[in-house]
Amino acid sequence: MAFQCQKDSFMKEFVTTVISCNTAELKVDTNGKKKTIKGYNVILKDTVLFPEGGGQPDDRGSINDIPVLRVTRQGPDAIHFVEAPLEPGSEARLMVDWERRFDHMQQHTGQHLITALADLKFGFRTTSWELGRLRSSIELDTPSVTTQQIEVLEKDVNEKIQDHVAVNVRLLSVDDPEVEKVRSRGLPDDHAGPVRIIDIEGIDTNMCCGTHLPNLSYLQAIKILSAEKGKKNKTNLIFLAGNRVLKYVERSCALEKSLTSLLKCGPEEHVEAVDRLQKSVKLLQKGNLNLLRDLAVLVAQNFKNNPHRHKIFTLHRKDGDNEFMNIIANEIGAEETVIFLSVGDEKGAGMFLLAGPEEMIDRLWPRVAEILDGKGAGKRGRYQGKANKMSKRTEVEALLREQVTSSCAEEE
Q1: How far apart, in whole angstroms, are the C-alpha atoms of residue 295 and residue 354?
Q2: What is the DSSP string of 154-207?
Q3: Degrees (nearest 5) of the Cα angle 385, 390, 391?
Q4: Of 175, 160, 166, 110, nearest to 138 (Cα)?
Q5: 256-315: per-residue pLDDT in tens?
Q6: CB of 374 within 8 A of CB of 384?
Q7: Which pTM was predicted?
Q8: Three-state DSSP class for 373?
């Protein structure tokens, strides 16, 4: 059957009847965290909320002011997930999240237009597409798309939008011979009822279950952002349609304004200004690295020149690196001195080096790694690794002093 949302994609409110309501669970991903929501699966006599299909995500909205969190299709039925029960046989007043619906229609109809013209102009067949949250992509069965081809395709699709071309919906029986003539990737296994055809007059005829605009003029504009290498020798065409183009321009203008303020130059000079800054940063980083190396040598020499030096040397430096630690360890030498060095966040994660008499260090390494919640590798009295708990350094230092004191006592 065709749902009311497919018969009239511009209908925002609808009254129908609750057929059934059963307990259910919904798994959702919120900011990267997965959780399960307990609620109810509701089937209605008809619905104005589109269930996902044809590459188009499902609608959002409400039933009797209860938010609908998911709409899926099972055979001829649309399943609405809500968190409160609805009485079978009762009236259900549906409201559509219109901003989401209209956005989805702009992207979906835009995809049909791009797909049709890419095929007509260049013979690039669409194998799949994805309606993303911020931008959408069309997978084309071609290893590459040139910049010139993108420019031609973008110009042509926007001319069709300006031509005010009508988009019509037709329903055909499954055994109608015309079904075989339309562009399609096949019907789903559980399809029931007539076949829905979307006609962009004079341009394309395509089998589709999604909601669409009645005229290309509602698309406003289409911007093809890029062509990216896809899987299996295919190309992904990234695009925006309708209000997403306006939002993209708005974000770009805001970014341009911020860069103008930060770089103290006009938009046409931004790239050159950033290039100069990157080169300056590289020179500063190189100079800083050389100073860090010199500092490592001086630190080691200062320790070696101290006639009253201890048999243990420890040091932490936030802005150091592995090379800094290795220079110090090499300069001091680990034959007679226990060396414990670390770099990074004093209370968080970082890197460390442990060196000294082979027998002692080989024995202490596992314990040191455990205290610092770290992992690493090494041999013959020298180990390096990464740690998650640099705040435990004092415990390691205490352990090393205890072992050195004990070793000195045994020698005496």
Answers
A1: 19
A2: HHHHHHHHHTT-BEEEEEE-TT-GGGGGSB-S---TT--SPEEEEEETTTEEEE
A3: 160
A4: 110
A5: 999 999 999 999 999 999 999 999 999 998 998 899 899 999 999 999 899 888 889 999
A6: no
A7: 0.76
A8: coil
